[in-house]
Design goal:
mainly alpha, two-stranded antiparallel sheet, binds heme C, 2 domains, 14 helices
């Protein structure tokens, strides 16, 4: 019964996280597009930066942007911050429930680094904080004066960080850690830069002073970063369900390419929303980089790394018998009706690998999780040699030849 509550709470937190994320990303996309579409108008007050006319839901909207601020404080003001904060809070709750709660399965690979569960959690939290400090430092440094140079420096930093994470955590842990690190940067941009800046402007208005324009400029820069980071972060969150993306040797490089692809796609829409000719070349480059990502995940898979044993001197029957025995031996401590693994109340994802029939039924999934990637066993906690992964690959191929 208790496990039902556990699984339900995970589901509900996930639900909240997705909804909060949709609300945040939706408003972020909306405001960036609105900002880009603003046009000057003769009839606007002199503090106004531009206006846009929009039609939606049966009515017309006339949006006017005041930069730095209107002459006097409006009576009512809607702030956009809880979309971001609730996305982060629910995200960290989910991270704790799934990853920190079972760090030995989700974060640690003893072959990579021999750490305890508690150390893994602290390394993860430390990495998130340090990631923010360095990114924030880059933005405030002289590099921050040029958007393109800052973007390049940010890209190099993120790829480096994601490589460093692969030297600390399991494949799965490192990949998700990167998503959480970037997600936190985005929320911290709102909590530490954008909102405090806007509060200072409001204070100045209330005091009858002229607000300092630097807050608007800084806020705009961070908001643009968030806009460019949105697509890659969503990729990581979904990518955590695809073993050939997160559990291969070059996952950290794939992440670098995804950062560029995400930025290219945003660039296309941002340019279009500005009313400029749409840069269709971005789709071509993004597609080429996507092909490179596929090639990287193929090249970094275990079954493509051990060539010498791929010509197994075994008959098809021998391969089949060995593969089935191997799976039952290594996987059934968790994937059983009554798992022996401490802390597991039932077989993860309801997958049972206890009989030949069950193994055969799951052949495809076994291939993706254990031959085409290092996803299973989690963190290689029950050791599976690369040669054995190749054997599973050969077995999978031999089944298809029937
Ligand atoms: C130490 C426990 C453990 C062992 C051993 C283990 N698994 Fe898993 N397995 C898990 C957990 C936990 C999950 C759930 C992962 C998740 O949350 O996506 C899982 C999920 C899976 C899935 C479903 C993946 C999905 O996203 O739908 C497959 C398939 C799988 N394991 C295959 C294997 C195979 C094959 C082996 C042996 C080579 C193996 N597992 C060994 C714990 C284990």
């Amino acid at each position: 019964m208790l496990d039902y509550f556990w699984l339900w709470s995970e589901m509900i937190v996930r639900w909240v996280h997705v909804i909060a994320g949709v609300a945040w990303i939706g408003s972020s996309f909306y405001f960036i597009a609105l900002d880009l579409s603003l046009k000057p108008g003769k009839e606007l007050p002199k503090e106004a930066n531009g206006q846009a006319w929009q039609v939606h839901g049966g009515g017309f909207y006339n949006m006017v942007k005041y930069l730095v601020a209107p002459k006097k404080m409006p009576e009512e003001l809607t702030w956009f911050k809880w979309e971001a904060y609730s996305t982060w809070i629910s995200g960290m709750a989910l991270m704790s429930l799934v990853y920190y709660g079972s760090a030995s399965l989700y974060m640690i690979d003893l072959e990579v680094l021999d750490i305890t569960q508690l150390q893994a959690v602290f390394l993860s939290l430390g990495g998130i904080v340090i990631g923010w400090i360095i990114y924030d430092g880059l933005c405030r440094s002289p590099l921050g004066k040029n958007d393109l140079i800052l973007a390049l420096a940010g890209l190099v930093f993120l790829v480096l960080l994601s490589f460093i994470y692969t030297q600390v955590f399991s494949h799965r842990g490192a990949f998700m850690q990167m998503g959480v690190t970037i997600g936190t940067m985005m929320v911290a941009n709102v909590a530490m830069v954008i909102i405090p800046g806007q509060k200072k402007v409001v204070q100045a208005l209330k005091a009858g002073d002229d607000p300092n324009p630097i807050y608007g400029v800084r806020g705009k820069q961070r908001s643009l970063h968030n806009n460019y980071l949105t697509l890659p972060v969503i990729f990581v969150m979904i990518g955590g369900h695809y073993p050939i993306i997160f559990a291969t040797e070059y996952s950290w490089l794939i992440l670098g390419l995804i950062l560029i692809i995400g930025a290219l796609i945003r660039h296309f829409f941002n340019t279009k929303h500005k009313g400029l000719p749409a840069p269709y070349w971005t789709w071509l480059v993004a597609s080429l980089l996507a092909v490179c990502s596929v090639l990287l995940s193929y090249a970094g898979a275990p079954n493509n790394n051990v060539y010498e044993v791929s010509n197994l001197n075994m008959t098809k029957e021998e391969i089949h018998k060995t593969a089935v025995e191997l799976v039952i031996e290594r996987c059934s401590s968790c994937h059983a009706r009554e798992p022996l693994w401490e802390g597991l109340a039932f077989a993860p994802k309801g997958i049972h690998l206890e009989t030949e029939e069950e193994v055969l039924k799951m052949a495809n999934e076994i291939y993706w999780q254990s031959a085409a990637s290092w996803a299973m066993p989690p963190g290689n906690i029950i050791w599976l040699e690369d040669e054995e992964r190749v054997l599973l690959s050969e077995w999978h191929a031999s089944l298809k030849k029937n």
